[in-house]
Amino acid sequence: MAHYDLLVIGTGPAGQKAAIQAAKLGKKVGIVERKRVVGGVCTNTGTIPSKSLREAALYLSGFHQRSLYGASYRVKQDITMEDLTFRANHVINREIEIIQNQMTRNNVDLWFGTAAFVDPHRLRIERSDDLVEHTADFVVIACGTVPARPSHIPFDDHSIIDTDGLLTLKTLPKSITIIGGGVIGAEYASILATMGIHVTLIERRPRLLEFVDQETIEALQYHMRSIGVTLRFNEEVVSVERQPQEQVIVRLKSGKEIAATTVLYSVGRTGASATLNLETIGLVADDRGRLTVNEHYQTTVPHIYAAGDIIGFPALASTSMQQGRHAACHAFGIPCQTQSELMPYGIYSIPEISMVGRNEDDLTKNGVPYAVGIARYREIARGQIIGDELGMLKLLFHNKTRQLLGVHAIGDGATELIHIGQTVMAYQGQIDYFIEAVFNYPTLAECYRVAALDGINQLPRPWPPRT
Ligand SMILES: Cc1cc2nc3c(=O)[nH]c(=O)nc-3n(C[C@H](O)[C@H](O)[C@H](O)COP(=O)(O)OP(=O)(O)OC[C@H]3O[C@@H](n4cnc5c(N)ncnc54)[C@H](O)[C@@H]3O)c2cc1C
Ligand SMILES: NC(=O)c1ccc[n+]([C@@H]2O[C@H](COP(=O)([O-])OP(=O)(O)OC[C@H]3O[C@@H](n4cnc5c(N)ncnc54)[C@H](O)[C@@H]3O)[C@@H](O)[C@H]2O)c1
């Protein structure tokens, strides 16, 4: 048994960053992982694999080149599961190595096994052949989530899979029904359709991703339909039934029956808190297994913190890292701030989407007078060169002060491009910055200048003086 300044449960982004931050402060740190590898959902089954798969699909399908060389252009005609997993596994293994190295370099003790609380300062770590106990002054719970697997869905991890199951398939589906048009559903639907797989996406809401700018989502939905995705909105799933001859039927409340070789169930995830023995320390998870924390990620037991997906929205790798670091800083009295109102969102659908700041619905609801400036990739030299016909960057700014209030982008590089707007917003900048600055040419960043000019041209003349 050892005593630590900090014990962390989980080696995903939240746990890693909490552990490294505490170690950098000279603290004695231990981290526990129940799987046989470090990295969590992010490295092993979620973010990294899905983004590697996307990159492989984009390359092999020749997607980016089609507008220049024709719709039938392909780098490889028959894309196989091995083609995709080859690339994903390469990246996953490198990432695991990097994480493990970081822990070793920073003297963080790594314990493989399943952690559970014995009392508020003591964790039991159960391994296949033995059991150890360690104590700590502080604990960070960063145990993440598991896919929701309701009992009425007959999962078999072969023809009916959850969101962790796609990469473990032996062959690519011939056709797929995706239940749930959240971030995972939208990303996988567009990736699979890009490779020529017929996809039906079922969503109970009237559109995809309701938190994303309406115009941006319309563009995504238009593109998804154009590559063969059937979008079914306002639909409820009644049953999922496996049939002979490699067929799974999804029955909808509206009476429709949708057949495909594979069904992917992607309607959210549940906090992995069930085995933590929370009742012994007086913590209660909500009905989706999540924990409640204050602005410093402290639970109601002050020396026990929780960070990452286990605390719910926004449940991103990007935010989880920051939350983990923030929790460790707070525990050891180091000032730390998280700029949550300028948190960017990146959705790796094809085409990709990104946003930061406020959207039109929110500004309208709150009576903020704003104007809009838009640049389309097809009107930008770089957009023409890369052959992106659909891309768009949209700036929302205050129509009197010209302060930048929100940026919404769809198209190649959108998730990178958004950070320019994020920085300007962090310094309360006005869109005039984009007009006065010189950008490399030809770049997609030029969209900022074009959109700013477009926005200013929409204002009543003469242009209002700067305040
Ligand atoms: C398909 C998919 C794609 C995604 N894409 C993106 C993306 O593009 N961008 C983005 O920002 N986010 C993305 N996400 C979300 C991102 O993966 C998560 O937000 C992130 O992994 C959460 O990090 P975490 O540290 O909270 O938990 P996790 O990464 O889930 O790690 C938790 C770890 O804790 C371990 N653990 C659990 N219980 C115990 C226990 N009792 N004892 C010991 N160890 C335990 C688990 O085994 C796991 O290794 C994606 C998610 C999925 C599923
Ligand atoms: N790029 C990224 O940042 C990224 C990528 C993938 C996943 N993630 C994270 O992973 C988490 C899980 O994502 P997700 O997409 O599984 O969950 P989600 O909660 O985001 O989406 C679930 C969707 O399923 C719909 N739905 C629920 N029940 C349904 C039913 N019975 N029939 C039809 N539709 C139904 C919901 O309306 C919702 O749109 C999210 O928190 C997300 O932020 C992030």
TrEMBL record:
Pfam families on file: Pyr_redox_2, Pyr_redox_dim
Gene Ontology cellular component list: cytosol
Q: Name one GO biological process term.
A: 2-oxoglutarate metabolic process
Question: What Gene Ontology molecular-function terms does this entry list?
Answer: dihydrolipoyl dehydrogenase (NADH) activity; flavin adenine dinucleotide binding; NAD(P)+ transhydrogenase (Si-specific) activity
Entry function: Conversion of NADPH, generated by peripheral catabolic pathways, to NADH, which can enter the respiratory chain for energy generation.
**What family is this protein classified in?**
Belongs to the class-I pyridine nucleotide-disulfide oxidoreductase family.
Sorted UniProt keywords: Cytoplasm, FAD, Flavoprotein, NAD, NADP, Nucleotide-binding, Oxidoreductase
Cofactor details (free text): Binds 1 FAD per subunit.
Q: Which cofactor does it need?
A: FAD
- Give residue ranges for domain Pyridine nucleotide-disulphide oxidoreductase dimerisation: 343-449
Q: What is its EC number?
A: 1.6.1.1
Check the record and name the InterPro entries matching this protein: Class-I_Pyr_Nuc-Dis_Oxidored, FAD/NAD-bd_sf, FAD/NAD-binding_dom, FAD/NAD-linked_Rdtase_dimer_sf, Pyr_nuc-diS_OxRdtase, Pyr_nucl-diS_OxRdtase_dimer
| Claim: Flavoprotein is one of the keywords in the record | yes
Phylogenetic placement of the source organism: Bacteria, Pseudomonadati, Nitrospirota, Nitrospiria, Nitrospirales
Q: Could you tell me what this protein is called?
A: Soluble pyridine nucleotide transhydrogenase
Give start and end of each FAD/NAD(P)-binding domain.
Answer: 4-324
Q: Where in the cell is it found?
A: Cytoplasm
Top-rank lineage group of the source organism = Bacteria
The residues the record assigns to binding FAD are: K51, D309
Binding residues for NAD(+): G180, G181, G182, V183, I184, G185, A186, E187, E203, G268
